[in-house]
Each structure stands twice: as structure tokens, then as C-alpha cells.
Amino acid sequence: MLNGHYLTGSRGSEIELSVNGSSVVCHRGDTLLAALLASGLRSFRRSIVSNEPRAPCCNTGVCFDCMVTVNGTSYIRACMIDAEPGMAVETGDKTDG
């Protein structure tokens, strides 16, 4: 059941997805947020008040600062879904990562 999960001490197989048009390699079992952060992405969107970059802070689905578009579907919390092979991910801030 947990084969390839971080709790077993082993990583899942490598998978590839697209983030803002660039290829990102991560591991099966990673959350999408973990994959994005591991790829170097730091800013996911811009503040509507100050236009400052925003990044996830809770990793539990509460802050909504990890919202991305996945395969054309908007408002997906990256911390709440697993990375899947072939995903096309777009962030609201394409100036970082």
C-alpha cells in the first residue's frame, strides 16, 4: 500500500510533468506542491492588493496560496493532489521558476 512512499524510505518512480511550459521531473507519490517546490518554484501567484509574490505557507489546504491550473482546470490546491505523469500545470505567477 505504501510502496514508493516517503514513509517507507524509498521514492516512487520518476514522472514528468509540465510547469509553465517547462519540463519538471518528480516522483510518483509526491504531492504536486512538493514537486513544484523541489523544482525551484517559489512564487505561485501575485497579491491582488500589493502585487507582491505569494507562496504556500500551510501545506494543508488552508491558505489557498498554492492555487494552480491543472490540465485547464483552475483553482486547484497543489498541496491537496498528487503529481501525475503528463500534468500540464500553470501558476498565476510565471516570473519565478
From TrEMBL:
GO terms for molecular function: iron-sulfur cluster binding; oxidoreductase activity. InterPro entries: 2Fe-2S-bd_N, 2Fe-2S_ferredoxin-like_sf, 2Fe-2S_ferredoxin-type. Residues 13-95 form the 2Fe-2S ferredoxin-type domain. SUPFAM superfamilies: 2Fe-2S ferredoxin-like. Coiled coil: none annotated. The keyword Magnesium does not apply. Gene3D superfamilies: 2Fe-2S iron-sulphur cluster binding domain, sarcosine oxidase, alpha subunit, N-terminal domain. It comes from the Bacteria. Keywords: Oxidoreductase. This is (2Fe-2S)-binding protein. The lineage of its organism: Bacteria, Pseudomonadati, Pseudomonadota, Alphaproteobacteria, Hyphomicrobiales.
